[in-house]
């Protein structure tokens, strides 16, 4: 498919859509002309205890300060629950839970959700949790995860969710960084028929987390776990006898809602901090626009709540909009590779949002498993997390959507809170592989490496030139790192870390990260984290990690390892190192290739030349570029010769 292939918006889709091309244009112009007026209108999509009078107060220079709706007062849980119940929609299903086991599912109404959130919020208050305290959530994809998030919001506690696939060490360092006082977890998680020992991992992590005073444990699989007297309590015991209503804390618009740790190009993961009002407005706005969400529809985002996609598009966005959000505990290929489509038919899903890596792996299995199910409820398909290659896009469009459903390829980041660049189903013609146009109110630009703004069709670094309400406000506990990471590369703009190309129609084509962050199966990882895990092994002297192209995962993890003197490379050691990294970080960080490197290519000042290592990993060894500045060019020859073939 050529780059310029365009799939027009079908007239029957445009005529029913909430936003057509004309409205899209009008909104874009309105947001451009009068941002304050535009957001004063859009902020009414959430419930306020006191409406703000000040709308936007943001600066990308100097100390960088981002405030939206700053004198408003609200509670996010009220927007997501109370107001729907009060509007007479208490019996509407808020969450459809579909278990890993296809025979287990549940439906939770808004009224029921409200009750469960209030009971947990009361239990948390009883344990002394108060406004501003940090609470860690380490739960599988069960309804309790959403209940936990909203209960934190209700009492004004800041949640920090740690993905269930992270190791005890990764969990511990996140708990320590934000000094959480309470941990919410479960006995075990279940994925693809296997159990994940969450409580056991948590116990291991808590050995080094003195800030945690209480642990609330959800009974999920019923597996045997140890409970520590005075610290651990079962969920139903903590909540069972609590009152069914709970006064929501009055929160300022700029009070923190959550922290979510994410990988950067250097150092340890950073605590991305989002605040209450701007984030919630953004979640609601983007969920409605991008998916053309209509009341009564069933919406399914297949992400895990441990990632930002789960925060914004399983919980906050859909629930703020009163949608029915499907939450799936399992994996795409269990018990069969048709699981997604079986679930789509079972629950009559209208909007389906997943990651390219899932699409690519299902594509390999052919059309039959898809075609076996009707899928006629589907109306809009979405993609997120990494660039989607045009072949996968076309397969998704043709086979899954029967050429009937528009595809929204949504570009965004943990830092952006929600989608920034995406087509709208009824308004923007699609091009397979392009995230298309910015949403109304978003101002992207491309700059060259010197920061010069590029006009028209061009390729460069993707920056955003002005603030939007959903933007992260700081790195928890380290504002200087926030300023340095995002606002120092290109003065006065937010630097995304991504590269992009803009075509003659103004469409954006994201080309991937331009820093040392890699994207493995849609999971974001810093190469520095994998390196520090490797060098923590007693037999490793030095390590350099780069991404390599991978058919299914998008990127794989390629590690160059130098052993300490006297140690010999062996297959056993290779396996040991893979297991070591999985233990240190978690199974998602499993190295795909380990190459023994007697030396690494370094400049005379000792800096590792990653450009060369990336080329070798990608098998582009004819295009290594200039190696004359290396301290020892012979190192490269050895690496090329001993490259690990996949
Ligand atoms: C990448 C996930 C191309 C990008 C929401 C970004 C994408 C990183 C897309 C953020 C897309 C996300 N097309 N690339 N539609 N969506 N990315 O923080 O490199 O886990 O910087 O947020 O994923 O990953 P994060």
UniProtKB/TrEMBL annotation:
Query: One MF term from GO for this chain?
Result: ligase activity
Q: Which PROSITE patterns match?
A: AMP_BINDING (PS00455)
Q: Where is the AMP-binding enzyme C-terminal domain?
A: 529-607
N6-acetyllysine carried by residues? 607
- Give its E.C. classification number: 6.2.1.1
User: What's its catalytic activity?
Assistant: acetate + ATP + CoA = acetyl-CoA + AMP + diphosphate
**Post-translational note:** Acetylated. Deacetylation by the SIR2-homolog deacetylase activates the enzyme.
User: Where Mg(2+) is bound, by residue?
Assistant: 535, 537, 540
- Keywords carried by this UniProt record: Acetylation, ATP-binding, Ligase, Magnesium, Metal-binding, Nucleotide-binding
Residues bound to CoA are 191-194, 309, 333, 521, 582
InterPro entries recorded: Ac_CoA_lig, ACAS_N, AMP-bd_C, AMP-bd_C_sf, AMP-binding_CS, AMP-dep_synth/lig_dom, ANL_N_sf
Q: Which PANTHER family match?
A: ACETYL-COENZYME A SYNTHETASE, ACETYL-COENZYME A SYNTHETASE 1
Q: What does this protein do?
A: Catalyzes the conversion of acetate into acetyl-CoA (AcCoA), an essential intermediate at the junction of anabolic and catabolic pathways. AcsA undergoes a two-step reaction. In the first half reaction, AcsA combines acetate with ATP to form acetyl-adenylate (AcAMP) intermediate. In the second half reaction, it can then transfer the acetyl group from AcAMP to the sulfhydryl group of CoA, forming the product AcCoA.
Q: What is this protein called?
A: Acetyl-coenzyme A synthetase
């Amino acid at each position: 498919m050529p780059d310029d292939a365009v799939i027009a918006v079908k007239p029957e889709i445009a005529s029913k859509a909430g936003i057509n091309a004309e409205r899209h244009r009008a909104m874009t112009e309105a947001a451009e002309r009068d941002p304050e007026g535009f957001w004063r209108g859009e902020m009414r999509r959430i419930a306020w205890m006191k409406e703000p009078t000040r709308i936007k107060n943001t600066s990308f220079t100097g100390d960088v300060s981002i405030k939206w709706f700053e004198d408003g007062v609200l509670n996010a849980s009220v927007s997501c629950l109370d107001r729907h119940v009060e509007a007479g929609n208490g019996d509407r299903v808020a969450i459809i839970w579909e278990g890993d086991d296809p025979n287990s599912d549940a439906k939770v109404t808004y009224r029921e959700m409200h009750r469960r959130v209030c009971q947990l919020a009361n239990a948390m208050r009883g344990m002394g949790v108060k406004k501003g305290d940090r609470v860690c959530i380490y739960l599988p994809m069960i309804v309790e995860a959403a209940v936990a998030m909203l209960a934190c919001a209700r009492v004004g506690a800041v949640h920090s969710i740690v993905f269930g696939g992270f190791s005890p060490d990764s969990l511990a360092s996140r708990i320590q960084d934000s000094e959480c006082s309470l941990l919410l977890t479960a006995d075990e998680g279940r994925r693809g028929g296997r159990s994940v020992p969450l409580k056991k991992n948590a116990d291991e992590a808590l050995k080094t987390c003195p800030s945690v005073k209480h642990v609330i444990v959800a009974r999920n699989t019923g597996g045997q776990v140890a409970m520590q007297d005075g610290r651990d309590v079962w969920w139903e015991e903590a909540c069972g006898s609590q009152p069914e209503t709970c006064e929501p804390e009055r929160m300022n618009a700029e009070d923190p809602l959550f922290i979510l740790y994410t990988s950067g190009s250097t150092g340890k993961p950073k605590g991305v901090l989002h605040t209450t009002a701007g984030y919630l407005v953004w979640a609601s706005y983007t969920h409605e626009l991008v998916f053309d969400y209509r009341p009564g529809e069933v919406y399914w985002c297949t992400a895990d709540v441990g990632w930002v996609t789960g925060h914004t598009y399983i919980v906050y966005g859909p629930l703020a909009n009163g949608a029915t959000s499907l939450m799936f505990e399992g994996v795409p290929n269990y018990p069969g590779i048709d699981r997604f489509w079986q679930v789509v038919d079972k629950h009559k899903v209208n909007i389906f949002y997943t990651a390219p890596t899932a699409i690519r792996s299902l594509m390999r299995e052919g059309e039959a498993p898809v075609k076996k199910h009707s899928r006629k409820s589907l109306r809009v398909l979405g993609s997120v997390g990494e660039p989607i290659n045009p072949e996968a896009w076309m397969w998704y469009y043709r086979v899954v959507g029967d050429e009937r459903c528009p595809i929204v390829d949504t570009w965004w980041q943990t830092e952006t809170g929600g989608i920034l660049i995406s087509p709208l189903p009824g308004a923007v013609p699609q091009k397979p592989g392009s995230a298309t146009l910015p949403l109304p109110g978003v101002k992207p630009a491309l700059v060259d490496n010197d920061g010069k703004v590029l006009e028209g069709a061009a390729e460069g670094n993707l920056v955003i030139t002005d603030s939007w309400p959903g933007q992260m406000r700081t790195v928890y506990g380290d504002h200087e790192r926030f300023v340095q990471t995002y606002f120092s590369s290109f003065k006065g703009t937010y630097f995304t870390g991504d590269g992009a190309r803009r075509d003659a129609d103004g469409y954006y084509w994201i080309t991937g990260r331009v820093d040392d962050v890699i994207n493995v199966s849609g999971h974001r990882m810093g190469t520095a984290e994998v390196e520090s895990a490797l060098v923590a092994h007693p037999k490793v002297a030095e390590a350099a990690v780069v991404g390599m192209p991978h058919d299914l995962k998008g990127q794989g993890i390629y590690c160059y390892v130098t052993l300490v003197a006297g140690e010999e490379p062996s297959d056993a050691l290779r396996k040991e190192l893979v297991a070591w990294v999985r233990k240190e970080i978690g199974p998602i960080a499993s190295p795909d290739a380990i190459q023994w490197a007697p030396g690494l290519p370094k400049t005379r000042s000792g800096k590792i030349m990653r450009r060369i290592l990336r080329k070798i990993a990608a098998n582009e060894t004819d295009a290594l570029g200039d190696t004359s500045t290396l301290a020892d060019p012979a190192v490269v020859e050895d690496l090329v010769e001993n490259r690990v073939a996949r």
